[in-house]
Amino acid sequence: MGGGRMKPREITSGVYFLGVPHWNRRLFDNLIPLPEGTSYNAYLIKATGGTVLVDTVEPAVSQVLFQQLRDLKVDHIDYIVSNHAEQDHSGAIPQVLERFPKAQMLCSDKAKDLLVTHLHVPEDKVRVMKDGERLSLGDRTLRFVYTPWVHWPETMVTFLEEERILFSCDFFGSHLASYSMYASSEPQLEVASKRYYAEIMAPFRGVIKKNIEKVESLKPQIIAPSHGPIHDDPQRIMTLYKKWIDDKPTNLVLVVYVTMHGSVETAVDHFCDALTSLSVPVKRFDLTVSDVGELAMTLVDAATVVVAAPTVLTGLHPLAVSAAYLINAFRPKAIAATGIISYGWGTKAPQQLEQLMANLKSGWIDPVVFKGLPDRESFESLTNLARKIKQIHERAEIGN
Ligand code: FEO
Which domain holds residue 51? Predict the structure, then answer.
């Protein structure tokens, strides 16, 4: 529960925004923090040749969607477009099909299998639309455009040609519960969009570039995502995306750390001071209190990533294992990576960290490893590590 009542709003004649804010949701996938909640946007198109529902909502808040359909006096739905099979958009499809049994589902080729296996949607209800295929609705035309890996393999966008409205589902979305219908009136839009990109889209930087080109060629006047406000200035969000996917990182060091008895924290203090005295910007996150989203946003820009942790039972502290796993999975654009590791009597943590961060191996630097409290030699190593990172940043083509 927690989906707030919100009335449908008209975007243009016969095209409605059915936004359902989830004000009190604080975690997505039981992993991603949602400090601003989230929203699920469905859209309704009433055309002379049929009524179309574009995407649905998280099943927990489906009663709000059904109320909106009643508000709009919808007594039949001809088509349900599923741009993306993940359950926060497709989960209410079985309920919608129950209420509107004559509706036909439209989706990409790869979505069909996902919808059938994940939701047990009857196979004969699903019609696969090819990449670029059009569907005439009388006075309106839909074009289906495949945009794979934003962020599942089946993802597509749907373009309403006459109004040049692009329904993009997760692509260009933001986890934001808000009364702002349009991005231009939402002050938190850029931060929320960057957080969303960092958490959901960043691992797919390579394909996003091609998908943006595809979307740009459609010349949309409006981009209507299924999370967060509608982009009434599509160029603004596309420009932000182009910046985030750019291969050039920023002159910034990300330090994530966990400490048990203070040894690692002492080392991190020294290392961050050394970077600062060399005028290398650094952002540090104590993993016991940090928000994964903040960390992910820093990872979008940072040129160097450092994981600092003590040894637990010969391996890395589990919080550092989890962080290293996520950092690696996000496939950051960082050009250097290393660790700061303490141990008591033996450790395999340095090798473990290197393996966990295999996607960063081209820029891997041997970690600074020390026994017990860092001593003078350890502090020198940390100072040298800071100098080395500064040199790497200076030699590479990076931004500020
Ligand atoms: Fe918003 Fe990938 O679902």
Answer: 9-245
